[in-house]
Design goal:
Largest sheet: 8 strands, parallel
Shape: globular
Structural class: alpha/beta
Helix content: 25-40%
Number of strands: 10
Distance between the termini: 34 Å
Order of helices and strands: EEEHEHEHHEHEHEHEHHEHH
Radius of gyration: 18 Å
Length: about 270
């Protein structure tokens, strides 16, 4: 299943995230994910694993045009100014061993640095180094500010979404702007117990699926993209979410669990410290 972006490019609705993966584990898990059938891989400069992710992509021997690869400009690079951003994108291309990036995101809305970074990203689209550009962890006012000067509209806003953090207003606003939403941390990153919630456990029994599959299905059925962590023992399970659907009353029941609870209090786009 693919989602069409506002620039007419399509992105696989479910991919694999690589946050916390390092070294040989990152390389191997990315290769195994692609071999399992995933075609969407998400990394970031801040993850410090682009080189290993790139090698895993290369090892898979899947043609480049079949893959969708995302990376993100780090906050420290953004604070270094436009030349630092420009160089970092070239570095990402080199580390990932690719000629173009399918999707490049601003990782966090660093105050007073977004405009300069966005202008470099637009420049990279015009040069063919990047196919699509977007943002991550942007709230409504961040988007409004960006759109006041952006010549190229962001295609995606990647934000934290899970049953305890449903982000309904933010998602609705993004969709009104023609911006797709990508859910990171669908299970709360393990810092909060999302999967163990009694409702999700009950629905897992009802549908004869795992609680993780129930969460992922709830996300994609909302029309969102998601990138659960690349863990080989969950690959077939994650891909299987496209084979069933949740009843509307169950979708609403899951959404009613919302507590606006971030997996980490530091992940607030208004006050993040990095």
């Amino acid at each position: 299943m693919k989602i069409r972006l506002n620039n007419n490019i399509e992105i696989p609705q479910i991919g694999v995230g690589t946050w916390t993966l390092r070294g040989e584990t990152a390389r191997q898990n990315v290769r195994l994910a692609i071999e399992a059938g995933f075609r969407h891989v998400d990394t970031a400069q801040a993850y410090e694993n682009e080189e290993e992710v790139g090698q895993g992509i290369l090892d898979s021997q899947v043609p480049r045009q079949e893959l969708f690869i995302t990376t993100k400009v780090s906050t420290s690079i953004m604070r270094g100014g436009q030349q630092a951003v420009r160089q970092s994108i070239d570095d990402s291309l080199s580390k990932l061993k690719i000629e173009y990036i399918d999707l490049l995101l601003i990782h966090w809305p660093v105050k007073d640095c977004v405009k300069d970074t966005w202008q470099v990203m637009e420049e990279c689209v015009r040069k063919g180094k990047v196919k699509s550009i977007g943002v991550s962890n942007f709230n409504r006012h961040h988007l409004d500010d960006l759109l006041s000067y952006a010549e190229i509209r962001p295609v995606i806003n990647q934000i934290e979404v899970h049953p305890l953090m449903t982000q309904e207003e933010n998602i609705t606003y993004n969709h009104q702007l023609g911006i797709q939403v990508e859910a990171w941390g669908p299970f709360g990153q393990g810092d909060i117990d999302v999967i163990g919630h009694p409702l999700l456990q009950s629905l897992a029994q009802k549908y004869q699926k795992t609680a993780s599959q129930i969460v992922l299905r709830w996300i994609v059925q909302r029309g969102l993209i998601t990138i659960p962590r690349a863990k080989p023992n969950h690959f077939s399970e994650n891909l299987d979410i496209m084979t069933f659907a949740l009843a509307e009353e169950d979708m609403q029941a899951i959404s009613s669990l919302n507590r606006n609870l971030r997996s980490n209090v530091l992940n607030d786009p208004e006050t993040f410290p990095w």
